[in-house]
Amino acid sequence: MALLERLRAPRPPLPLHLPAHGRGRALAPALRRLLRQPPGSWDLPELPEIGGPLENEGAVAEAQAVAAARLGARRCWFGVNGASGLLQAALLALAAPGERVLLPRNLHRSLLHGCVLGQLRPVLFDLPFDSATGLWLPPTAADLERQLEAALAAGPLAAVVLVSPSYQGLCADLPALVAAVHRRGLPVLLDEAHGAHLGLDPRLPPAGLASGADLVVQSLQKAAGGLAQSAVLLQGGSPDPQPAAERTAALERSLLWLQTSSPSALLLASSAAALEHLHSAAGRRQLERALSRGERLRRQLERAGLPLLANQDPLRLCLHTAAMGVNGLEADGWLMERGVIAELPEPGCLTFCLGLKPPRRLLRLLPRRLLQLRQALGAAPLPPFSPPPLPPVAEPELPLGQAWRAPRERVPLTAAAGRIAAEPLCPYPPGIPLLIPGERIDAGRAAWLLQQQRLWPGQIADTVSVVAG
Ligand SMILES: Cc1ncc(COP(=O)(O)O)c(C=O)c1O
Fold first, then answer.
1. Which residues are near ligand 1 (CB < 6 Å)?
2. Against a cut of 0.90, is the pTM above it?
3. Which domain-ending residue is among 278, 303, 333?
């Protein structure tokens, strides 16, 4: 019963992690009402009147059609396996086995898993790196132009994946990036897991669909009031109906391959309710208040001299712990003991997700705790982080699925140079692989990984799994 007891435990004073509904405070109102019904009464199978995401008839189909119209999408599908499941389905719809797909280095691991499932060949493009925070930054259009050229020089691509916003609320100039990809006649899959709220307030950048992305995946628990695992896949409008119809068919096929045959009616309803609320007048007002509170908190912290990362999403507050002389993982441990639960600790930063209804005591308690943190652990700023020694565009030397299944051995990181990775090296969160199976670890990469191991205490082993022989 340990798990159930944990779920019953009282909430800590300041839970600033996902889901964005903040322990139910900002659950979409219709979902809240549903959950007040006798427990379990809403746990239903694909009854004819309910249907499922791939049925043409029924309440789910109707809700998906309403959501698509509301969001300006050609089609939309709700998902019950998070943004992960829908990203994988989208990827498999865009590329056939053996085809190459261009992905950013800060890809979420679900995309890598999608490449394994679809036997796709990932081509990874490097990103600008911020030495002060240790974070990857969004690509510029000029970078992407060069990388597209380099990737295409080595063979055709089937699709390009972009990620925006990042976990830390950093947004790319999507219209420019999407246009660069479209000029090469390629489709864009946008991982907008953290950006369901974009475009809904003048303070936020435009949404991916409005920026021209062909397929967009949003998590509905990261920036909307849905339950964990609720997500949506959006298909953009296309001027040419024939390829769009073909794409729809391909998407439905890959959703069928990957989706459970018993999708939870509750999670599907959660997707519908979260989108309906977020895009309603009441939802926008809630978002507006949450953004204002986030901005007020930021000003307060800046006035107190606390270093914050400049980003584009006021609901993500990213403390630049390295500037305070503290590793973000250490800061996280210290705050957790005092009831402040952050979302994402990293060596140079600690990200708090304020959610759609930030707790009232946030403005009083967080500044106090962060000042205490600085007092307790603060020191001279950490030295700059080294960028990963990566080429602008790189492909694993051995096919991803082959390397991941190959006979392997574990070798110390200090002896890894020259070997081929058999497993990803992936601190979680954020779930961004630092090394992917099939990549050869050269001396520079081995030295960088050793450095990473010191920076992520307890998250990266001192050995690495490599292909045997
Ligand atoms: C950028 C990004 N994409 C996709 C995902 C996967 O989302 P989910 O956990 O809903 O499957 C995450 C999760 O953290 C993420 O950060």
1. 82-84, 108, 110, 163, 167, 191, 193-194, 219, 231, 430-431
2. yes
3. 278
